[in-house]
């Protein structure tokens, strides 16, 4: 009997990694279609994360809050993950990054009819550009001589300032920008247009704070799960449901 119990225990112990997991708490600001409190699955980034973690036996909870609070809360280890963020040298000091799972194309936005055409940072001096606090824009852009940077808390505030003539430009991922306007203020969409080439192509990652004792476990689980959902077709199906192509 003792031998039977020992064999059963050994089998259970060996099998444990397949069922390892628990709850992972994740946060983002509203950033449709990638993080969307109105979407039944929470948005594209959230759905990909839930699917990836699900293959590793984890359950994901999701909270929406202002972006600066997301960064602070996860960096302190009070929550486990940022649902989607760009890489920067500053963030590398406080976070562990996953493998990238999406790409954002960041483009400038101007008032409709404005003759300005963005063709490089050298076309920006003298202009007021609205940005979002705690977002990771390139240092070259943020410190470019003559560019007047005006930070606010969210994208829609920048668009309203732009339409009112209080700033000259703002910038956002094109898919995010148009989705946000269609939800928050559709009338504004007809008053703005994207201009020129992308400022940057930004890979999107999930992040876990280095102060979180589980950060390595969590990121490794996501990476393994991401690989699995790409292999089994789940990633493609999720992307297609949002009208997007695979990374």
Strand content: 25-35%
Distance from N terminus to C terminus (CA atoms, Å) equals: 53 Å
CATH architecture of the largest domain: 3-Layer(aba) Sandwich
Tell me the number of strands.
Answer: 9
By secondary-structure content and strand pairing, the structural class works out as alpha/beta
Which CATH class of the largest domain applies here? Alpha Beta
Q: What is the helix tally?
A: 9
Residue ranges: pLDDT <50 for 5 or more in a row? 1-19
Helix content: 25-40%
* CATH fold label of the largest domain: D-Maltodextrin-Binding Protein, domain 2
User: Any idea what the CATH superfamily of the largest domain is called?
Assistant: Periplasmic binding protein-like II
Give the helices and strands as they follow along the chain.
Answer: HEHEHEHEEEHEHEHEHH
Assign an overall shape: globular
Instruction: Provide the gyration radius in Å.
Output: 21 Å
Quick one: biggest sheet? 9 strands, mixed
Q: How many structural domains?
A: 2
Report the mean per-residue pLDDT as an integer. 90
Keywords: Signal
Organism: Desulfobotulus mexicanus
Domain Solute-binding protein family 3/N-terminal: 23-245
InterPro entries: Solute-binding_3/MltF_N
């Amino acid at each position: 009997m003792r031998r039977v119990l020992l064999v059963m225990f050994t089998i259970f112990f060996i099998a444990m990694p397949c069922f390892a997991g628990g709850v992972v708490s994740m946060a983002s600001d509203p950033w449709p279609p990638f993080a969307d409190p109105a979407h039944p699955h929470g948005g594209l980034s959230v759905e990909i994360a839930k699917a990836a973690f699900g293959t590793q036996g984890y359950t994901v909870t999701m909270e929406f809050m202002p972006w600066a609070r997301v960064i602070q809360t996860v960096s302190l280890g009070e929550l486990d993950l940022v649902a989607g963020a760009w890489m920067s040298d500053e963030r590398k000091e406080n976070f562990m990054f996953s493998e990238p799972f999406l790409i954002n194309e960041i483009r400038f936005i101007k008032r409709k009819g404005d003759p300005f055409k963005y063709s490089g940072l050298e076309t920006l001096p003298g202009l007021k550009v609205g940005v979002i606090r705690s977002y990771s824009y390139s240092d070259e852009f943020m410190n470019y001589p003559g560019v007047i940077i005006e930070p606010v808390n969210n994208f829609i505030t920048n668009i309203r300032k732009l339409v009112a003539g209080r700033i000259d430009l703002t910038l956002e991922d094109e898919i995010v920008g148009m989705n946000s306007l269609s939800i928050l203020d559709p009338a504004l969409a007809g008053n703005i247009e994207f201009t020129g080439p992308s400022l940057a192509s930004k890979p999107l990652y999930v992040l876990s704070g280095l102060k979180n004792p589980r950060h390595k476990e969590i990121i490794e689980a996501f990476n393994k799960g991401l690989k699995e959902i790409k292999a089994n077709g789940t990633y493609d199906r999720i992307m297609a449901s949002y009208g997007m192509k695979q990374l």
